[in-house]
Amino acid sequence: MPGGAFGVWPWACLRGAGFASDAVLSLAAPATAALLSALPPEKGDDPALRACFDDELLRIRGYLRGVAQDERFREAVLWQNRGAFKTGVEGLASRPLEATANKKVRQRERLITLYLQRYCTKNDTIGFFGPVGWARLGTGTEALTLDPGEALIEERRVHFETWCIDALAEALCAEPALRRWAPPRLLPYLRLDGGVLHAPGMPPSPLPPAHAALLCACDGVTPAMTIAARLSAGPSRAFGSEEEALAALEAARAMGAITWGWEVALGTWPERELARAFERIGDPALRERAEGALSRLVEARAEVSRAAGDARALDVALGRLDETFHGMTGASPTRAAGRAYAGRTLVYEDCRRSAQVTLGAPLLDRLGPPLSLVLSSASWFAAEIVRGYREALVHLFESVRRPGEDAVELSTLQRAFLESGPELVAKGGHGPLVVQRARRELDRRWAEILDLPAEATRVERTVAALRPRVREAFGEPVPGAWAARYLAPDVMISGADVDAIRRGEVTFILGEIHLSNTLSSLFVDAHPAPEQLLAMVDRERAGKVVVPVFTKDSWPQRTRPCLFPSDAYHYAFSSEPSPAPAERTVRVADFVVVRAGDGLEVRHRAGSPRFELMEFMGVLTTSIAASAFDLAPAMDHSPRITVGDVVIARESWRVAPDEIPFVDIDDPLARWVEARRFQRRLGLPRFTFIRTPAERKPCYVDFDSPVLVELMAKLVRQSVEAGAPGPIRLSEMLPSFDELWLVDREGNTYTSELRCVVYDPAGLAGDGASSPPGVG
């Protein structure tokens, strides 16, 4: 990275909206807005204003019906929520426009508004309405090149949610004849030692030799029938018959010692893993039955794929998939209603954008120096969080260590960690206390560095002026846990078009900085050559890397972390199956924790492998704090802060819900008039994003649009009704609509951002760089 010590990957993920940005501008009422600006505040009920407003609102409501009838919009909503499509989109599209709208019509119009603003102004990554693109970062002399491609989308892929395949496997396993060919697996928090079964919190349980041999054979791969045949054959057989061995397996399952079924790990193609498992069914007729059931589900998904671009066909195909699934499993085709990112339906679609983008030296030379200053503080912050966790875990270790014993069961320490509450694992509110303490110190140091004047709306600083202050405050990057050595900044390029950017008419806006490599599975799967990303991770590996086996109820399939070294260990601690082979999977029951100098070491009972504790838990703790970094001062109003050519913090506001006076006004014009007074009082720009405590994703607001103001009011009311504590946050929209450079072949503009991956080369410099003395 020019201007700093950080390395930067040559690939950056291009995240962008899938709908042209200007579609939301038609939600504005420009004539009424101009008239309202010209009238004195007390003239908010002027008859001419009311007449103009009624005309424009009717036009906007007609436009929303046109959106509801748009083929791409209908297809997008179908993918996200078929229920909302049936009741909201279809309900509005089929209803004639009337001068007045009842409550139900207003709800439907608000739903269309909600989806439209999301598809046009948010850099979400989902389906064809938020496709994944990729940009090359290089040293060429051209600042920016863009080939938009012939069409917006280059590739579309429909994937099963893992829970769908799990449900099919469970249904098939319910048939006794098929179940015999499913593999049993000893749970990772149990261990056998000399014929004695050890379980957390339980006294050791000696087992008969036959039962001990049976549990030892439960590897999660070998079918139960094969195990039963092996242990009931020969003169030294453990069981008198296969049926006796199978009955013993059922008893072990009932007591919670094993899982017994076809299990698929959290992954992109779960049906392929299940198909490989079916190949081990020894009975040809039963194997054909299992494979046939999976094939029917796969064919139903293929029909969904073929429906791309045709909303009506997609609706039919999704319905048939639901029917096929329900007919085979008896289960509902949806789950987790109301939960975001929960994989609610059977399948999802990910798409790759056609655009080919390259950033050259002229852009990176301007971006690098200011960004490197911020990255230095983010690196310090990540290391400070790791340090805080190290100290806290030492205290936790001592609190659970029994007098006279040197070691603590890893499962015991992990349980204490997960039960520690707000100190170490709280994800709600402001995060764990260990993260909050580091954040307060980060805020304090940046406040001293920036020395913001009171009441300012714009603050500009130079790299030369800030560099010594940043170095004094944060020092050089400090190695932390492996996962925390990566940072992933989101960067927006602001320029009228590619030609303007090439002329140097460009600024950058810094979005979030994630405290880990957040190029998750959905990004990697859409890369034209994923092996290149994995090779970079292998080259930059330092020390041992341990990855938790991610649980399906905690990690969305699409956004699971997946960029780990090829020789990483996968840590199994729950009933979740590991995606790695047995030789790369470590089990929680096989490890203890001991003191090692001032820290802690995780040690296999056999003596090797061994890990420094934070290398073992680094991925887990980093995931808790990944989004904790934020440069915006925690003030009622904070200015736009620019360093060199980079806006490191947008202008933003924090307002208590009861200080927003228009949210309970029912009359559309009166609500809009009051909203614009609120806008003027705070000095808000026309284009703003709002974030409420009850909704993690921001929503676009145009104060010239009565329907977007109505949507804002609804979101604030919902937050209050949910009892979500905290202020309403507003921030300026940057880049604005006239500063969007990403275009398609027809010249339509799209919002976008680049998610880069940076790292500290010194912190990743060699195989034992992260291990303390004596750990190997």
UniProtKB/TrEMBL annotation:
Species this protein is from: Sorangium cellulosum
InterPro entries cross-referenced by the UniProt entry: Lant_deHydtase_N
Record domain Lantibiotic dehydratase N-terminal: where: 69-711
One Pfam match: Lant_dehydr_N
Protein name (database record): Lantibiotic dehydratase N-terminal domain-containing protein
